């Protein structure tokens, strides 16, 4: 299976994250599965005229394209021309290249939330007119139409994340290579379900604090960050705390809130990222599939029942009170 | 006299998209125009937001210098609000930032720079077989070893920063996560393993020996490891004389710790170092697709020229220091810091100098990282209280892998009223200014040899990649 990888309007961080693939390293992971790059902007030798000739040959259909990976949003500005990103050396907007090449690909993969939905590049007033490949934020239809299907029959596969976990990308590619990713394996935003059916909350090391609503009030306190610090790990899809990042990390393990970077429009939560908005003292954005009254009742009960150990540790930057023995209680 | 124009692009194995237009006459580049073809508008996105949002947004300018961006934003916010990190918070931030810079350096060497010597044009060289074995794109044993070592090294980022890239761990008041005794041991273990790879693959000797090289003669005597291979190639191809920069080097000083910055700040020119005054910076817009007048970044604005009108040819502004171009990066940082080898290399100023100085920095940085990890105190405070100011202005100057990065922030009424960023490659790959003076890369490309029929001159590729450009940071 060959891959043509284009870097559109993004930060390149999904490629940099992909290079963190381990056991084995990225190059072995792909080579062992028979996956090769026709061209990748960070890895391939071909530059300039050599790369242009390859792109042209793909466009003419002379080189069959199995998978087109696009990293970064597609910018449409200024005035719908896409000239905020002309693919160097080609005199053509990336918008134009993406539309030309996508129908030729066996499958199209949007790598990262920018390519999927517009992502951070669409923040603020979206000065560059950034959109995703098949979505514009939450709305279907981006650089490609809502009914776009690649030759292999799938819509754009949205490996969303900011950045993407290296294994989300490699596993998607490995599944495509053995024809093991079908429409039923994608969620409502066409994200692979193998990671999008999980919540960041699953496996969160702060779960004991969450159970008692023992909440951190400022960044560096160990408590749960949902009530005050903007954490939306109970709603955000991703297996970040099941299979951690860069060894043993994740955002919540780094002690800062999950901002749902796998979701469309995460870049504009409508409030400061690290603050939970409240209405009449009740945090907005409770777990989406739990009745609010139940949540409030349970929260007030568990708050009242919070053991001292958990209360102290929640408001500390490290464990101050160790778990006690069963006999003495804690 | 034969004249022609060459458009080089897409220019890959740089971070982001790059286009270089070359006027070639009599077998050499007569003039070069460097275009950063992507505009996203991060400075515009930040305006009107809660100042704290800069800590989430600015790292996402760049996936390779992400921690640098967050460190600069945290410093700018701290300056605006009078916050300061506790001693250990600054140390942990330096470890996280240093791990990123180290990862960037080895990525550049193994994946971006060395593969060019695998080109068939060099098939008759005595070293070609060895470089093919080590650095064939995506396959070479050296590339594989470094990619693997890099992902293990970045476990430090997982431990201290949650993930890499795009961490929110660095705050104006310190670090969100207080490392414990186990974290400290994990980090030390990771660094020992990384040293083993550096010594086995890159240097073929103890890193202390490379860090102690004191001049060009000592450097040219280095034979071992991939560093030795590069130096052999550089000698054979005359890379010391290729792609000389402006000869002025800027560093803001790297890694702010309690006792000051680990490397000195200053401007190196002709063997002498003078103080760096950020007040001397102005961004010239004459050849950028940007509207407005030249301004200091504290007063600057970002208004793209949607008509992309002449004489603009790039989205990149042209920062100048006291009206002059300066080069930034590992060579600048090490020369300004006074390392004897780096000073000799700064005088040389070409492709070899940039790459050798980066290797020197790899060796020195490894020693610093080990030292900082040993100093980590799991009992200390890593975060001080900090509240976002309603009014204020701040500057955050840091050293990214690729050189000096500055954030200039203004807060009014609790919101960001102005945010300007000057990134390393903004300096190095800037377009011409009002006086028609080409940017550092543009000047370095003048005179590069181009053989008849060459479409993508290999000399130009060596020079461009020797700067280790980050194009996504450049325009942001």
TrEMBL record, chain A:
[4Fe-4S] cluster 1 binds at residues 11, 14, 114, 162. It comes from the Bacteria. Pfam families: NiFe_hyd_SSU_C, Oxidored_q6. This is hydrogenase (acceptor). [4Fe-4S] cluster 2 binds at residues 201, 204, 224, 231. Gene3D superfamilies: Cytochrome-c3 hydrogenase, C-terminal domain (4.10.480.10), NADH:ubiquinone oxidoreductase-like, 20kDa subunit (3.40.50.700). Its cofactor is [4Fe-4S] cluster; [3Fe-4S] cluster. GO terms for cellular component: [Ni-Fe] hydrogenase complex; cell envelope; ferredoxin hydrogenase complex; membrane. Heterodimer of a large and a small subunit. One of its GO terms (biological process) is anaerobic respiration. Keywords: 3Fe-4S, 4Fe-4S, Cell membrane, Iron, Iron-sulfur, Membrane, Metal-binding, Oxidoreductase, Signal.
TrEMBL record, chain B:
GO terms for cellular component: cell envelope. It comes from the Bacteria. It is found in: Cell envelope. Mg(2+) binds at residues 43, 62, 421, 476. Fe cation binds at residues 65, 473. Keywords: Iron, Magnesium, Metal-binding, Nickel, Oxidoreductase. Its main location: other. PROSITE patterns: NI_HGENASE_L_1. Its EC number is 1.12.99.6. This is Uptake hydrogenase large subunit. The lineage of its organism: Bacteria, Pseudomonadati, Pseudomonadota, Alphaproteobacteria, Rhodobacterales.
